[in-house]
UniProtKB/TrEMBL annotation:
Record protein name field: Precorrin-4 C(11)-methyltransferase
InterPro entries, per the entry: 4pyrrol_Mease, 4pyrrol_Methylase_sf, 4pyrrole_Mease_sub1, 4pyrrole_Mease_sub2, Cbl_synth_CobM/CibF, Siro_Cobalamin_biosynth, Uropor_MeTrfase_CS
Gene encoding the protein: cobM
Superkingdom, taxonomy of origin: Bacteria
Every Tetrapyrrole methylase domain range: 3-208
Biological processes, Gene Ontology terms: cobalamin biosynthetic process; methylation
Source species: Stappia albiluteola
Length: 256
């Protein structure tokens, strides 16, 4: 028996990995976060499987289902949205599994920031504009941010920021980042990426909050901030494919 933590991707059933889908198709028990994982994904569970939406359950109740499956010798597909390594709340589950001696593995999924960038049709790292992407969140009613991980500190890097779980905290994001990025810095709010009703709101740090308020978006959104979101057309090409750039797979300069 093994517990398979599976990243289901951001919402589009086509974005789950082949491995993740096969695990769901073979697991007699499937636990999924119904508020974030579409039913179309867990519909792949075998006939007669025990399929449970864990959204209304506590950690103790979720673990009770896993322990019961363990006692029956049945594998569990524990399906999370996006990629389990990012705000997946798997650490506390893994801690309990280790204490109980229940084996587990993790299958990665497409994270929301990558799916959003794909839907936007753009790169988050542009030569000489931004070569770093920081994945973070802000503290509201959830656990506090560790020391040194506040936006004011992270923003000094000038990196492209992908800010999770914070669409209701745009006033504070604006307050902390405008002094660092400028009021005209591009900002994008990606709503329900990968779902049929996905939408994107483009703006700047000075007006994105008002645009989001008008759109009445209050949850399930990812915020991007950074110059790479709208680079000038004259940014330099990457050295990777430059004919003058020599590397082990292209040892000679190309001209013309």
């Amino acid at each position: 028996m093994i517990v398979h933590f599976i990243g289901a991707g951001p919402g589009d059933p086509d974005l789950i990995t082949v491995r993740g889908l096969k695990l769901i198709q073979s697991a007699p028990v499937c636990l999924y976060a119904g508020s974030l994982v579409p039913e179309a994904i867990v519909a792949a569970a075998p006939e007669g499987a025990r399929v449970i939406d864990t959204a209304p359950l506590t950690l103790d109740e979720i673990m009770a289902e896993i322990v019961a499956a363990h006692e029956r010798g049945e594998d569990v597909a524990r399906v999370h949205s996006g990629d389990p390594s990012l705000y997946g709340a798997i650490a506390e589950q893994i801690r309990r599994l280790k204490a109980l001696g229940i084996p587990y593995d993790v299958t990665p999924g497409v994270p929301a920031f990558a799916a959003a960038a794909a839907a936007l049709g753009q790169e988050l790292t542009v030569p000489e504009i931004a070569q770093t992407v920081i994945l973070t969140r802000t503290a509201m009613k959830s656990s506090a941010m560790p020391e040194g991980e506040d936006l004011a500190t992270l923003g000094r890097s000038g990196a492209t920021l992908a800010i999770h779980l914070s669409v209701r905290n745009l006033r504070e994001i604006e307050r902390q980042l405008i002094p660092l990025y400028g009021a005209d810095c591009p900002a994008v709010v990606a709503y329900r990426v990968g779902w049929p009703d996905q939408s994107f709101i483009r703006g700047t740090l000075s007006d994105i909050r008002e645009k989001v308020r008008e759109a009445k978006i209050t949850r399930t959104a990812l915020i991007f901030v950074g110059k790479a979101l709208q680079p000038d057309e004259d940014f330099r090409d990457s050295a990777l494919y430059d004919g003058a750039h020599v590397h082990v797979l292209r040892p000679k300069r190309k001209t013309g």
